[in-house]
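Lysine transporter LysM (Vibrio alfacsensis), 197 aa
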Amino acid sequence: MNRRRKKKQQVDHVGLMKQKLAAIDWKQPFDKEKWQQNLSPIVQFWQGLPKLHQRALMVLVPVVLLLLVVPTPKEMSSTSVTPVETQRVTIQLNTQSLSDQSSAQVSQPQSESWKEYQIKNGDTLAQVFRNNQLSMADLNALVAIEGGDKPLSHIKQGQLIRFKLSDDGKLDMLQLEKNGNSVMFFRLSDGSFGRNK
């Protein structure tokens, strides 16, 4: 069953108020009965509203009228915001490891050359570290920061690993060649490792 409800007719309250105001004869002296008669539709409308709406209107109408009467400060109206221009700046990065920097200032480092190792079939990174007398703690620190592409965990046969030791024999820098790209890990001043793609 398809029942259609009739739409309530829209009442133009502003138009009604304009008609009521136009009907008022402003030149005649004040007549209390006539005013009560003219205000009766407004009073009926007001009494038809729920109590919550009446209370809200009793608060909001004076506030809105007060805001319309009070002038705004001149500082607020004359203030203009200028847009900030964004600018890209190129930064020169020093890719020299910290041990190279400190040793270059003091004296020439003893282990100036890089050592290379090519991954053989079946090699794991742990075996590469053991074969080259590198610390397993350094391996764990490197694996912890290797990132989502996991260049250390996915080494392949024929891949080249280059590493450099500091003066005290610890791993200072490790470089992996992967798909024509180089991934470099380097020791920071606090002893941990950082990664540079």
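The first strand starts at residue 115 and ends at 118. Residues 106-111 have pLDDT under 50 and may be disordered. ok done for today
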